[in-house]
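Structure ticket #2291
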Amino acid sequence: MQTYAIRRILQTVPILLIISILLFFLVRSAPGGPLSAARRNPNVSIEQIENLKKQLGLDKPLPVQYVSWLGDMLKGDMGTSIKFRRPVADMIAERIPNTLFLVGISFLVTLLLAIPIGIISARKPYSTFDYVMTTITFIGQSIPVYWLGLALILIFYVLLKNPVTGDPFFPSGGMNTLGKEDDILDTLWHMVLPVIALSSSWIAWYSRFLRSSMLDVLHEDYIRTARAKGAREQVVYYKHALRNAILPLVTLIALDLPSLFAGALFVETIFSWPGMGRLFWDAARGRDYPILLGVVMITAVLIIFFNILADLAYGWLNPQVKYD
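Resolution: structure written out below.
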């Protein structure tokens, strides 16, 4: 397994190089640019705009800009934000804890609900519980997260009020109430609606995926053999069936794990959560190239890393998987 891991890591080097080239030229070829606002300002002369381009290095050919950017990235320097005039690495370091907190809690809630729902639905297929969960999960898969976020704000902030105080049930956005920045309970209260909006689609996908995988596994010969040997149903389901049925789900989870760092774009924007998703949105609106490239490259590295981790997890979950 160690040899396999080293080989996979070495294979990621050319992949990341190709990804960096594509991302760099795609971002730079987008309409507009960081100086578009200055060009629309009648008080800014053409000479001033040209000076800004030289200061930012935007006057050089794109291949030259790419080589310069790649060299800085390899040294750990993500550049300086064009809009905020701050190091990109510092801005990302400030936002990552907020994103980890929000998306991490949402991911934990997802696993705590999706896995039991998937297992119970597989154990009792076509039961009342299965029909109810199927209906709810289909609804969860169909509703876009941005629409659900806006609906939650409309219901629990605008329409429904606390009958005693007259205040909304939940805050509409932000991470803390003004003056309660160090109150963890206040932060958790602000997280209720974002967590619901973010985890609903994950719960729907994971539970249905696990149910389908479990139903396929339960018809295998080794399950019948385990039952014929007198194994208890708990052992059959959780030791034999679940361990094999969860393998496809590992890949799905591995693809979603990078969002723990990259953030949830729609949810963080709708609920004004100061995380990586909101940072990316602000950078995209202002064509802030260094931030855009920094966030996207980190996401690409994490996707590749977690895919390798998922492959290695296969060997741990299923001893039949060999890495020769």
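Closing remark: The CA atoms of residues 146 and 191 lie 16 Å apart.
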